[in-house]
Every structure is written in structure tokens, then in C-alpha cells.
Amino acid sequence: xxxxxxxxxxxxxxDYGITNNExxxxxxxxxxxxxxxxxxxxxxxDTAIIYGKSQEILGNVGVKDFKIITKIPHILNDGxxxxxxxxxxxxxxxxxxxxxxxxNLYAILLHEPIKQLKGIHGKLxxxxxxxxxxxxxxxxxxxxxxxxxxxxxxxxxxxxxxxxAPFSIIDQRFLNSGLLDxxxxxxxxxxARSIFLQGLLLMNLNRIPDQFSxxxxxxxxxxxxxxxNQLSALDACLNFVNQFQQVNKVIVGIDKKSQLTEILKVKNxxxxxxxxxxxxxxxxxxxxxxx
Length: 291
Known about the structure:
By secondary structure, the protein is an alpha/beta fold. Helices cover 38% and strands 15% of the residues. Helix 3 (82-99) links the parallel strand 3 (67-72) and strand 4 (105-110). The chain is globular, with a radius of gyration of 19 Å. The two termini are 33 Å apart. The model has no long low-confidence stretch (mean pLDDT 91).
């Protein structure tokens, strides 16, 4: 599991997650988590420019020996000249590298790729990222998406090496669409995120926030299925994504050393059976629709 695991750091330096009732992780709280990940052989950390002070905190903690993936949002407005946009984009990426206190990035992903690449400065994103890759500042270029349709659009307009996307036991859109196989054949790495649906799949029924009450039947079925198959939610969620060779990496948001310990304890055993879900409303599996 260590080889596949990527530590997600959205909880560091900002308030993140529908089920996160803990304090925002500061530098002192993030340090033991990073040290523990290092001791356990975890090699990858995922962050983003929009994750509050995450990059700065990670830089102060010390992550030079990790492979760092960061994401860049849509920061170029249409009113900028090409030269102005080029300076802003290049400076922002170099600022990320400096904040993280590292020499280079394992990967940069476009955080809003369709908006970024379809906009007036679309070619510039490709140009700058390619130049940074040629200069050794970035090893790989990729995209972070929410749906298979995003990938179908992007394959025609952008050369990327990594896709970060939601994939879980309740959200199998990339599997059912055939895109897991297609990306694998194109040698594009697939990084699964939201494997716990921001923690909803791990919660007891009586702790699920009221805003998800329209989906009570789905969560009741999920817990019934776990009970009947004598599985913990953690085991089921992890072993589902682990059983696919097309899933190259798994991003798990962690804000406690103990959480990482529990995840690494899970034995990699393919599931003998899978839940038979009713049709899943995309408003449930797409956190951008949550309020």
C-alpha cells in the first residue's frame, strides 16, 4: 500500500472536508504526520496552491525527500496580455517550489483544466508547463478532474501524463465508462481521490450530516452490506480501489498520525462481492455541489 499511497494535505493550513470537525493542522501538528509517513515508506504528497498555507507549512516541516504533486488553479484572467499572463503563471509555479522548499516538483496538475485550456491563455499553460518540464523543475504534467466527460474533452486538446479523479466503491464512473482501461493503454497514470467520499463512507449512520438525508437509503444499504460481508468501511473502500491495476496511486486525506497507521494496517485482499447500488445521484458523489 505504501507504494500506491499519496498523502493528501487539504486539511493542512485550511478548513477542509464535510466531515472534518478538527482544528486546521498547523506546522506542529503536520510535522509528526510527515515524519510518520516517511518512516512508513510513503513517498508521495499531494497539495495545491488553493490549500491555504499547506505548501508553506510543508516547506517548513521539510519534504525534500518526498515526491510532491501540486495543483495550479485558473489564475489568468482574460484581460491580461500574453506577456503578463506568462510572468504570473511562471512566478506562481516557482513560488510554489520555493514555498515547499524543494528543488523540483514530481508533478503539476491543472486544477480547472477545461476552464484553463479552453480560455484565451490555454496555449500558455501548455507552453509554460512544458518549459518547466524541460528545465527539470517538473517531472510530470497532469489534470485534476471531476467526471469522465472532462477527460474525453481534454484528451483532444492537451498532452498529459497524470489524471487525478474521484473513484470509489460508490463512484465507479471511470470504471464503467471504460476510461480506466483507455488511460492505462495510453500510459496515463490514474490517481484515485475521494475514495472515502470525504469521509462519509467511513461515518456511522447517526453522524452523517443532515444535508445528506435525501440519501439515507443509500447509506443504510451501505452499512447493511458491510455488516453482511463482515467488512469495515475502511477495508472495503481501500480494497476496492487497490484491486484495480489501472489505479496507479491512491490519494488519502490524512490529518492524524493514527489515521495513517490504520490505513497502512489494511491487508490487501480483493473483495469477493461488491455492493449493488441503485442509480447514484451525481450531487452525492460530486463535492462541488455540496454546500
